[in-house]
Specification:
Helix content is 44%, strand content 20%. With 286 residues, it is α/β, with parallel strands linked by helices. It binds calcium ion.
């Protein structure tokens, strides 16, 4: 009796172990299938993203060749390849102030651009002390220009505007970000810059004068710096700022996104136009 009972227990145990092994096996197979499936999708995404990038680059080159004086970029190109949606947003960097020009390549402060940035903050009704905080963040030394300067400072140039989150509070960043860039030659395009940035270029550019500039360029874009300097009231100021302005943009940022179902790949790339050639300045995957 007890022997039969033992046999039954053994049979039941074997049965239970077999069942649990089977479940384990099924689970593993299922996991493996999922991993393989996800791997396939991510591999496809990667290939598509690269072709998407090539496509967007070609589109951008065509776009830049046809570039008009008043083109601001901010254009969106969309395309589908293998069910993956690719979108590229092009933004004109020369219509914005390059925060990296606050500091020269040798690490010392560029006082003129520092003043432009202070004026821009003032015009946007933001605390001018942000200018010192940002210079402290970028300049190579650890000498504080302002009481809360040099805290977690990078002591080097910005690679991405997202770093401004260390300097500005969220609300203020929202206000100033549309006027800023961190790539390009730092020249301000007087055909595409917003009124607030035009006013910040020189202490003597009043709102009235900035409006006159905008009226003039709306009639027809400035094709030379001379045409800009000829705007009534701009002759002295225009000559004074002629080395920091341009009438045609040459630096562009492209934000590229490839998405399929829950998968999303994001790339930011910087392009520069020089001598009729389009050059990739940087490419950053997120
Ligand atoms: Ca510093």
């Amino acid at each position: 009796m007890s022997n039969r009972g033992n046999v039954l227990i053994v049979v039941l145990l074997v049965f239970t172990i077999t069942i649990s092994l089977l479940f384990d096996f099924i689970r593993r197979v299922y996991l493996f299938i999922n991993i393989t499936e996800n791997y396939k999708i991510s591999e496809t995404m990667s290939v598509v993203l690269k072709s998407g990038y090539t496509y967007a680059t070609e589109q951008l080159k065509e776009y830049l060749k046809r570039l008009d004086y008043t083109d601001k970029g901010s254009q969106t190109i969309e395309d589908r390849a293998d069910d993956v949606l690719i979108s590229a947003i092009i933004t004109d960097s020369n219509s914005k102030f390059n925060v990296n020009t606050l500091v020269y390549q040798n690490g010392s402060i560029n006082n003129r651009n520092y003043q432009i940035f202070r004026r821009l903050l003032n015009i946007l009704k933001l605390d001018e002390a942000y200018a010192d905080k940002l210079v402290d963040y970028i300049d190579f030394d650890n000498v504080r220009r302002t009481s809360d300067g040099e805290i977690n400072s990078k002591n080097y140039f910005l690679f991405s505007l997202s770093e401004l989150g260390y300097i500005f509070n969220a609300e203020d960043l929202e206000k100033i970000k549309p006027y800023l860039t961190c790539i390009g030659d730092g020249m301000i395009n007087v055909n595409t810059a917003e009124k607030e940035l035009l006013m910040a270029l020189h202490n003597d550019i009043s709102e009235e004068l900035a409006n006159r500039i905008i009226d003039k360029r709306t009639e027809g874009p400035f094709k030379t710096k001379g045409e800009f300097i000829n705007v009534a009231g701009m002759n002295v100021i225009g000559i004074n700022i002629s080395d920091i302005i341009t009438v045609k943009s040459s630096s562009f940022i492209v934000n590229l996104t490839a998405s399929k179902d829950d998968f999303r790949e994001v790339v930011e790339a910087g392009f520069e136009l020089s001598g009729g050639q389009v050059k990739t300045r940087y490419w950053k995957e997120y």
